[in-house]
Amino acid sequence: MANPWGIACARSGNIENALTAGCMSRFNQSEESCRCAARKTIEIESAPLPELLSYTDNADMITALEKYPDYLGVLGAKSPSDMTKERVEKQDEFQAVFQRHYTRFEKECL
Prior knowledge:
Layout lengths: L3 H9 L2 H13 L3 H14 L4 H8 L4 H7 L17 H25 L1
């Protein structure tokens, strides 16, 4: 389910609040725990991946696809020929960031 507050934060460029909102919606956890993970992800991960995560975590796939189609694999491909090795690598990179973000949340912030 889309989180309007999280989408608004992501679209306004407030990545920390958007990641916090996405986490709170997904896990029904405290703002403090989710903000901890958001801050760590922003600090550790390379741009533009935290921003992309802020869109996908808040179910704003329209903006995610507009801004970062190369990181979304088949979803961002317009034809089969778009699925290049580079695009697959970027999709894998994004999936790894997603996994690390929620591992951080569970192991370091709960």
